[in-house]
Amino acid sequence: MLFLLLLPRNVCVAILRAYRATISPLYGDVCRYYPSCSRYTLEAIQLHGVVRGVWLGARRILRCNPWAAGGIDDVPDSHHHRYVVTPFGFVTPRPAHESTATARPLLSPTLHSHAGIADTVGAHTLRAHVHGKG
Q: Matching InterPro entries, A to Z (predicted)?
């Protein structure tokens, strides 16, 4: 039953993954923000669902313009971590034996493919460096 509830979210994930694999490379690295607008929208949908994720992604795309200062702009965190992300990016229910207190955050796998970041620690190091703290 939960599979059907997560189906729209995972359809959007598949569409964004296809876009990121085929169309996005044609544009090159043009986004003023980190992560890129397509990565931000993908993470927002994975974390918050289709409606709020698309809304957050659309707001981000409107902010990404030639006059924007840019910088690091992370997806707002969710207060509940009921799901996990597969290596491909699909959202699945958290296993019953895995407590939410000890489980890894939902977005840790999605940071891997952007800018060659190997893990979440690497992403935090990059963010600290960009902000002049590293």
A: Membr_insert_effic_factor_YidD (IPR002696)
pTM of the full structure: 0.71
Predicted pLDDT of residue 97:
72
User: How many Å apart are CA 84 and CA 58, to the nearest integer?
Assistant: 24
Q: Please name the amino acid found at residue 32.
A: R
The token pair that represents 30 in the structure block: 């043009």
Q: Which among 37, 36, 54 has a CA at the least distance from the CA of 45?
A: 54
* Phi, psi values for residue 85, rounded to 5°: -110, 130
d(CA 71, CA 121): 19
Q: Tell me which amino acid residue 109 is.
A: P
Residue with tokens 């607008």, as numbered in its chain: 37
pLDDT at residue 94 greater than cutoff 70: yes
Between β-strands 83-85 and 91-93, what pairing exists: parallel, antiparallel or unpaired? antiparallel
